[in-house]
Amino acid sequence: MNIEKSDASNRKVNVAVVGLGFMGITHLKAYQQIESARLVTVCDAVRLPVNGVLAGVSGNISGADAINLGRDLKVCRQLEEVLADPAVELVDLCVPTPLHAPQAIAALQAGKHVICEKPLARNSTLARDIVNAAKSAKGFFMPAMCMRFWPGWAWLKELAEKNTYGKILTARFRRVSAPPGWSRDSYFKGTDSGGALLDLHIHDTDFVQFLFGRPSSVFSSGISRFSGAIDHVVTQYKVANVATVYAEGSWLLTQGFGMSYTVMFERATLDFDSARGADALRVDEEGQPSRVVKSEGPDGYGGELRYMIQAIQSGQPPTVVTAQDGLSAVEICEAEEKSVNTGQVVAL
To answer: Which runs of consecutive H residues, i.e. helices, occur in 95-189?
Structure first.
């Protein structure tokens, strides 16, 4: 499976998507826009294409419409069939959280490259099992932490690294949603999903560590309403050299979805709000009129998948997000959960 760098742009990577719910369809649509990706297999125990067409499914960001995958695609119900196929190079796991650890480890042991949806696992013990399997695996492994690639968010990271507007003084992140529509009967079981804390809020927890490094402690408050786990959380993160960093995540909206941030640098404020659509990102710089920064390129889903394909083509493992990052995000969320339950600051 070693690829010469000179051949990186001259070949396609064969992909199998496992799990064909809302996120599976989202990934399939992204792959259809990546010239260097070739979809060869789809796998799901229940939902499969009919005459090449996979029916749509509801999600919290937006509905996923039906998608035409063509009649030549291989279709199967068992992961074992995917792993036994030598044509499959990259296994993309969009399955429910309880399946992440066993299926990711099986795919790595089969010599496949693997990208796995968040959270890496329901708890840090299982997530650590994946990290250990990835260390000795032939293929590359990457958790799908899409906000590291999202337009307007990746740029924020770049500005911070370049010290364009000075240091960050304070940062606020918010991600709120109605309960997810794709699996209301089973997904609210918090022992499986982790509630909004692990399913939704983990995006911002991961972006906090991406932007500032791993926090030294967290202080959180929250409630459970649907799942038996935490469905609304507000967390303050103690990070190096920053006055305040906090994030809110929720499944308690009556309807809709929104994600936003406000980051105050020494010489500018960046404000992102998905409710503004194409004008989501606004920059207010000292001495300058307020301006909108238009995003270019794919969304975070397309960005992360394109990045993984390029890593496989080049023979260089992914570094923007690693298995260890996925584990760390779960560990931080566990600390947040402990803080909610104890009312105490929890050190990491």
So the answer is: 100-109, 124-135, 154-162
